[in-house]
Amino acid sequence: MDRLTTSTPAPLEDPVGALLRLASEIAAFKEFVAGRVAELRANDWRFTDHKGAEQLRAELALYERALDRTARVLVEINRLGLEERALRNAERVTARQGEQIADVIRAILEAMLGHAERLLGDVEPWAAEQLRARWPAWIGEVVPRELTRMAEQDARRG
């Protein structure tokens, strides 16, 4: 977009995340302006314009506004409890992803069982029946054990 349009913008899908990102951007701008102010010597904070009037450097006014804006948005985020909301949303996403992973694991294991049953059913039908009967218990043993092992490995790396 190279110019502002008059069309109605699409609604934000994640207004909480958008406000938290905006707060980060405001804080980053404050830090940028703070760096510019730090480069100034104290006796350069003011200057005399061409009319002889004493003026304050624009960097100082920008810094003051950035401090004020940062404080206001952080107070508002705290007042609204937005960080907690964002955390709860992330936990819901993580839970949903966990359910999706579990569904994928179940589908994979079910497909593998189907292949094994067909293979065994052609040779030993009783073995295919035994496999089908024992399969849920094996899944209940192997999947949690492997997920725990992966979590422990991640914890050691982390």
Give structural notes.
- The structure is a single chain.
- The protein is mainly alpha-helical and 158 residues long.
- It folds into 2 domains: 66 residues, no CATH class; 63 residues, no CATH class.
- It has 4 helices and 2 strands.
- A two-stranded antiparallel sheet has the order 1-2.
- Helix 3 packs antiparallel against helix 4.
- The longest helix is centred in the middle third of the chain and has 42 residues.
- The radius of gyration is 30 Å and the shape is elongated.
- The model has no long low-confidence stretch (mean pLDDT 83).
In short:
The protein is 78% helix and 4% strand.
Descriptive key words:
single chain, 158 residues, mainly alpha, 2 domains, two-stranded antiparallel sheet, 4% strand, elongated
Proportion in β-strands: under 5%
Strand-pairing-aware structural class: mainly alpha
Estimate the helix proportion, in percent. Answer: over 70%
Mean residue pLDDT:
83
Q: Give the termini distance in whole angstroms.
A: 41 Å
| Physical arrangement of strands within the biggest beta sheet | 1-2
Contiguous helical run count:
4
Low-confidence stretches: none
- Tally of domains: 2
Order of helix and strand elements from N to C terminus:
HEEHHH
Largest sheet: 2 strands, antiparallel
CA-atom Rg in angstroms: 30 Å
Q: Per the principal axes of the C-alpha atoms, what is the gross shape?
A: elongated
Number of strands: 2
Oligomer: single chain
